[in-house]
Amino acid sequence: MSFNMNSSGHNAAAPGFGQNYDPFADLSRHDDIDEALDFEDTYDGLGDQLDETDDAFNDDTFGGGDVGPSRPAVGKDFDFFGQTAKVSNALDEEHLRFERQQPVPKAPRVPSTQNYNTGYSYQAAPQPARTGYEKYKGPEAVSELQVDASIWGVAPKKTATPAAAAPSQPAPSAPPAGRKMMSLEEVEAAMRAQSRPTPPAQPVHIQQQPQFGHRESQAHAQASPYTRQESHEPRRQPVDSRQSQGVQPGDYHQAAQGVPHGHPISILQRPSSKHTAPTGPSVPSPLTQQHQAVPAAAPIQILQNPNAAPTQILQNPNRDASRMKVPTHPAHQSQNSISRQPPVITHPSQLSELSEQEKAAFLEAEARRAKRNHKIYVLSKDNGLMTPQDKSFITRIQLQQLVSATGDPNEHGTDAALQEDFYYQVLSSLRAGQRPNPNQPLTNFAQTYLFQTGTRHNGMRRGGRGPENHVQRMEQQVQRAVEAAKNKPKNKQLVIEGSLGKISFSNAKTPKPLLNIKRTESGTDASRPSSVHRQHTTGKGMDKKATLRDIESVYLTLMKMEDLARKMPPPPPPNSQPGQDFVERQAEFQVLNDQLWNALKVHEPISNGAVHPFITFISYPKGKKAIPRVFRHLSHTQRTTILTMIVIHLDQLDVVRGAQVQTGEPITLDAASRERIEVFSSAVMPSLFQLLNESELDIVTGVLGLITQNLNVDLVARTRIGVSMLTMILSRAELIKQAGQSNERTWQQWVSTFNVFFNSLEPTLPNIFPGTVTSGEDIYVWQFLAAIGIGASPDEQQRLVLAVKDRVMETVGLSKTLPPDMAKERLDNVNLFMRSIGLDVELLS
Amino acid sequence: MAEVEEGPAGGSGSEPLDLVRLLLDEVVFVKLRGDRELQGRLHAYDSHMNLILGDVVETIYVVDDEEEDDEIRTTTKKSEMLFVRGDSVVLLSPQNSS
């Protein structure tokens, strides 16, 4: 559609093209005339005869037949025609064939005349020949003249260049008639007939001569135009001959008038053309007025020329007019040639110049319009190439690609995809074939072609249904795209052939997993069950971590309590009401106290098999260290409870268990145990000591009773911590007795308990000394012995002395070997015990 | 500090440093960058694994290239108290002190 429109527009826009075509056709006809040249040669002889008789002047004026070739202008013109003739040789041959095919019986004379004319026109030089022929041709030429006029009238209507259009159309049919007539004999006959009238043509030449004489300066330029005009003549004559036969009677009358008179006719025509150049053409063909009076007039004259020379004269005035407008000769030549020769491109503008200004303006406007149209044509070359359906089609293809890009094309309807975009799908499937997963691509590929044959046709049919279908499918595509986007997470991995692993995609919703950990069972906490399991198998390990957590909890609570204690307002005076703040602080403190107490695990049930949590608690150094701080925030009852717990598990304490010493043997305790003992002594014992000092005798008695009844006194007494503990208990009891704070009953309980204790302790006494005598670490033992000695009965003291006598004697003996300082220290230690029982080392020495 | 209801912090152990907290005042083994190891009592730490260790025994492993057998030579150094910058800490583990 578009192309047709463009082509049509283009033709309309550029009238010049049409003109170009026409002249070639004309030239081809001329070529036919070339054959007539032979006739002309023969005819030249006739012409010479004519010249000899009367036409001597004609040669001067018109340059004569022989003189013509010498002039360059003429030669140029011939060259032009010759070139065209070369091009048109083929056409000529075709014309010949055509002519032969269509025999034209009638009007042998007419073609002869035409040939005759053409001959002149071709050589262009002999104008006198023309004049002579025109006169003789009279009757035959009349019809031609009529025809010419009609043609010109018609031609202008159709195209800007009437001469070109008109001859081109009739040309194909016209030539045959004329050329059939062209047989040599006939032509010769015609030549003879025409040769006779040449003498009367002289007056015409005379008339023309003065005109040329005036323009002698321009003669060269004019000569060429004449030749051109003549050359045109043959073209149109054959055409005219046909059309003229019935086309326009009006013109015919004019021609008829001209024909009989011959020369006079030309005279009549002159004034008409001269006075009213525009109107002149209108006479032969009123239609010519519409477009171009000048071009119409010129051809008419040309047509008339063969009949009568005056027509040429008529042309001259026109040329004069044109010269008046454009003084330069070359311009005239070109203009004239152009006007008479449609093929020239610049023809329209020239026509306008030759004619009235209005027509020129009209032509210019037309030219402008043509240019504009041409520009628009160039610019809009691609306009309308795509219909709305095409656009929607492309949009759907893009959507389809979007779908396949966001989602997996394999998962979606391949039929629809293929229907929309076959080649892309095939390509994608081919690429997909490279994937290691062979099945899917193959099926997809197979489907591609299978569906291609089926759905493709369907798609074609559907496509014809109309735009609604496109819209629907577009919506479907959008839905598919959304769906694909939803489904995309399914395709998280891509396995490329040759690669060792999977390539996982990532997007905003599902980030690329850097670690792919498969969770077992519950998956909530993998480490927790294992730890529980370990707890059962190795309770110790779990106890440790739990105990450590307890310790940390204790410390945290302690810090909180200490922080709270710093903020604690001073306790209100006894008589006054406690403030609100104080009460709150007390409550808060109590909460922390409960936490601390729970963390200490003191109230955990006592089981025979496992170590009590609290004992485990204080088995850690930091647990031991926590005791002094804990005691500051615990009530007396809580502290007593802790004391009881420690005492009752005294043999299970890390500092007691495995820390027994044997008298006379080197101390085997490792550094860690020594450190633990040291820590316990420095951290826990003072707290317990302070607690005991605040305790009543019954508590002290109870503690001693627990040790005596529940524990292996031997194991306890052979440890430093145990000994210290016992010493602490005994000394407290002695202090209470000395302070007189105890009543008789409790004291008796204490004595009884002490007696039981002493009885159980007595076998161990010789073994409680750590290491050898030389170890020098037995001071706590002497303190212990002193504590026992103080509270012991005289009988018990005797037994005590007997039990440790060896050690005392060894120490005294060792002291004699030691330096005085060290000896005194040792002796002082021994004296602690000796003095407790009323003795002194001095006595032994 | 004022939140009492948080419960025994030692019991949660939700974060690695909570476990490290359990090692406070314990003898720990610390592996450091530069082929160094520490063994000492952990006194304090922070989120950067800056450590304060007491009674530290530092072990430095040196490979002597000069010797043909590439024998690894160790040098030990004892410090009563040591501050360890956290960025050099590679590993921290409890040391079984039995």
UniProtKB/TrEMBL annotation, chain A:
<feature type="region of interest" description="Disordered">
    <location>
        <begin position="160"/>
        <end position="179"/>
    </location>
</feature>
<feature type="compositionally biased region" description="Acidic residues">
    <location>
        <begin position="33"/>
        <end position="58"/>
    </location>
</feature>
<feature type="region of interest" description="Disordered">
    <location>
        <begin position="98"/>
        <end position="126"/>
    </location>
</feature>
<keyword id="KW-0963">Cytoplasm</keyword>
<dbReference type="InterPro" id="IPR039900">
    <property type="entry name" value="Pat1-like"/>
</dbReference>
<dbReference type="GO" id="GO:0033962">
    <property type="term" value="P:P-body assembly"/>
</dbReference>
<feature type="domain" description="mRNA decay factor PAT1">
    <location>
        <begin position="6"/>
        <end position="842"/>
    </location>
</feature>
<feature type="compositionally biased region" description="Polar residues">
    <location>
        <begin position="111"/>
        <end position="121"/>
    </location>
</feature>
<feature type="compositionally biased region" description="Basic and acidic residues">
    <location>
        <begin position="229"/>
        <end position="239"/>
    </location>
</feature>
<dbReference type="GO" id="GO:0003723">
    <property type="term" value="F:RNA binding"/>
</dbReference>
<dbReference type="InterPro" id="IPR019167">
    <property type="entry name" value="PAT1_dom"/>
</dbReference>
<feature type="region of interest" description="Disordered">
    <location>
        <begin position="321"/>
        <end position="353"/>
    </location>
</feature>
<comment type="similarity">
    <text>Belongs to the PAT1 family.</text>
</comment>
<feature type="compositionally biased region" description="Polar residues">
    <location>
        <begin position="219"/>
        <end position="228"/>
    </location>
</feature>
<dbReference type="Pfam" id="PF09770">
    <property type="entry name" value="PAT1"/>
</dbReference>
<feature type="region of interest" description="Disordered">
    <location>
        <begin position="1"/>
        <end position="75"/>
    </location>
</feature>
<feature type="region of interest" description="Disordered">
    <location>
        <begin position="189"/>
        <end position="294"/>
    </location>
</feature>
<dbReference type="GO" id="GO:0005634">
    <property type="term" value="C:nucleus"/>
</dbReference>
<protein>
    <submittedName>
        <fullName>Uu.00g054080.m01.CDS01</fullName>
    </submittedName>
</protein>
<feature type="compositionally biased region" description="Polar residues">
    <location>
        <begin position="1"/>
        <end position="10"/>
    </location>
</feature>
<dbReference type="GO" id="GO:0000290">
    <property type="term" value="P:deadenylation-dependent decapping of nuclear-transcribed mRNA"/>
</dbReference>
<feature type="region of interest" description="Disordered">
    <location>
        <begin position="511"/>
        <end position="546"/>
    </location>
</feature>
TrEMBL record, chain B:
<keyword id="KW-0539">Nucleus</keyword>
<dbReference type="GO" id="GO:0000398">
    <property type="term" value="P:mRNA splicing, via spliceosome"/>
</dbReference>
<comment type="function">
    <text>Binds specifically to the 3'-terminal U-tract of U6 snRNA.</text>
</comment>
<keyword id="KW-0687">Ribonucleoprotein</keyword>
<feature type="domain" description="Sm">
    <location>
        <begin position="15"/>
        <end position="98"/>
    </location>
</feature>
<dbReference type="GO" id="GO:0005681">
    <property type="term" value="C:spliceosomal complex"/>
</dbReference>
<dbReference type="InterPro" id="IPR010920">
    <property type="entry name" value="LSM_dom_sf"/>
</dbReference>
<keyword id="KW-0747">Spliceosome</keyword>
<keyword id="KW-0694">RNA-binding</keyword>
<dbReference type="GO" id="GO:0046540">
    <property type="term" value="C:U4/U6 x U5 tri-snRNP complex"/>
</dbReference>
<protein>
    <recommendedName>
        <fullName>LSM complex subunit LSM3</fullName>
    </recommendedName>
</protein>
<dbReference type="InterPro" id="IPR040002">
    <property type="entry name" value="Sm-like_LSM3"/>
</dbReference>
<keyword id="KW-0507">mRNA processing</keyword>
<dbReference type="InterPro" id="IPR047575">
    <property type="entry name" value="Sm"/>
</dbReference>
<dbReference type="Pfam" id="PF01423">
    <property type="entry name" value="LSM"/>
</dbReference>
<keyword id="KW-0508">mRNA splicing</keyword>
<comment type="similarity">
    <text>Belongs to the snRNP Sm proteins family.</text>
</comment>
<dbReference type="InterPro" id="IPR034105">
    <property type="entry name" value="Lsm3"/>
</dbReference>
<dbReference type="GO" id="GO:0003723">
    <property type="term" value="F:RNA binding"/>
</dbReference>
<dbReference type="InterPro" id="IPR001163">
    <property type="entry name" value="Sm_dom_euk/arc"/>
</dbReference>
<dbReference type="GO" id="GO:0005688">
    <property type="term" value="C:U6 snRNP"/>
</dbReference>
<comment type="subunit">
    <text>LSm subunits form a heteromer with a doughnut shape.</text>
</comment>
